């Protein structure tokens, strides 16, 4: 018995090893789908590039033939599909995202890397702000059930949650940019400015930032508020809350416990939302011509740039899985039921 206890593996370790195996397996499946989907789109991804080469061949045909030969080797055109698949998986696990077709000879990582800070600066504050405000008003609405405040929050949240974020983006642009001319139509900063940390450039970036931020913030806040309202109502109906009220516990303390206990599922949702931000808010970035990863993905889709499409999704899926694993790790530490369930499986 002493020997068994000495070598017993922690349930947390067993749980995390199983989750890691599951995530690696699903990541492999996700990469397979990412490989298949762009190739299911009809069209020739090299058509535009070959047309440009053909036009240049009139001046220097020998050099163009060499470039064409290099292109065929680099993109694996003509190789069996299973060979392309194995090479794609090998590069993906090594972090090599390949070369863009539409922006040849730029590397995919060189196109995505500059877009990541813009997307993070836009989506992380918008997501966290919407999560914070949505949960606060949702908790108060759930606590004040039947009041005018609860009805107002419920109706406005339902409207916002059902409003497509791209439609809201176009509405904001029409009213605040076109009609009132308060904010610019799009872009991340004025074209006549050079990126720097100068106050003029920072203020200009913030001026361009307002409309994309509002479109994401307003469309997300309703969903968080509705979810938190339901969780708070459910928590207030539990036995320990009824018992606390019968003992005359202060309302502020009851609200505090109801809010804190209702918050855990919302934290999971926030972690998953943050894990997927690198995918960008595709249509918002397109509407406002915002230079984030969503806009890069749109450029890849419109030109059938397989490596660029795959590169964005490889990074997006990897960050989503890392966020998922972080949530599992925190849950395994704070909730013993998860550890015990993992031990019994």
From TrEMBL:
InterPro entries: BPD_transp_1_N (IPR045621), HAT (IPR003107), MetI-like (IPR000515), MetI-like_sf (IPR035906). Residues 116-327 form the ABC transmembrane type-1 domain. The chain crosses the membrane at residues 21-41, 115-143, 164-186, 206-226, 263-288, 308-334. It is found in: Cell membrane. Its main location: membrane. GO terms for cellular component: plasma membrane. The keyword Cell membrane applies. Keywords: Cell membrane, Membrane, Transmembrane, Transmembrane helix, Transport. It is a multi-pass membrane protein. The keyword Transport applies. This is ABC transporter permease.
């Amino acid at each position: 018995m002493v020997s068994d206890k000495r070598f017993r593996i922690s349930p947390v370790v067993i749980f995390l090893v199983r989750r890691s195996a599951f995530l690696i397996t699903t990541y492999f499946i996700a990469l397979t789908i990412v490989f298949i989907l762009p190739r299911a789109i009809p069209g020739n991804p090299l058509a535009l590039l070959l047309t440009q080469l053909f036009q240049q061949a009139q001046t220097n045909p020998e050099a163009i033939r060499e470039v064409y030969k290099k292109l065929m080797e680099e993109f694996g055109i003509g190789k069996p599909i299973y060979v392309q698949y194995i090479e794609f998986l090998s590069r993906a696990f090594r972090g090599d995202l390949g070369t863009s077709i539409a922006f040849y000879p730029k590397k995919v990582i060189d196109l995505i890397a500059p877009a990541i800070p813009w997307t993070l600066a836009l989506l992380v504050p918008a997501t966290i702000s919407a999560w914070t405000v949505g949960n606060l008003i949702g908790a108060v609405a759930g606590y004040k059930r039947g009041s005018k405040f609860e009805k107002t929050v419920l109706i406005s949240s339902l409207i916002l949650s059902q409003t497509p974020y791209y439609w809201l983006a176009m509405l904001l642009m029409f009213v605040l940019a076109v009609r009132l001319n308060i904010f610019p139509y799009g872009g991340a900063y004025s074209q006549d400015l050079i990126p720097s940390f100068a106050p003029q450039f920072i203020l200009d970036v913030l001026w361009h930032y307002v409309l994309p931020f509002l479109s994401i913030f307003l469309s997300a806040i309703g969903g968080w508020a509705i979810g938190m309202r339901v969780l708070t109502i459910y928590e207030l109906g539990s036995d320990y809350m009824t018992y606390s009220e019968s003992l005359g516990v202060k309302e502020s303390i009851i609200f505090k416990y109801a809010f804190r206990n209702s918050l855990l599922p919302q934290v999971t949702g926030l972690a998953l939302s943050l894990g997927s931000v690198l995918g960008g808010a595709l249509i918002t970035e397109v509407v406002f011509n915002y230079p984030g990863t969503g806009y890069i993905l749109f450029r890849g889709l419109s030109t059938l740039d397989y490596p660029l499409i795959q590169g964005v999704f490889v990074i997006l899926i990897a960050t989503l899985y890392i966020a998922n694993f972080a949530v599992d790790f925190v849950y395994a530490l704070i909730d013993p039921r998860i550890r015990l369930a993992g031990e019994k499986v």
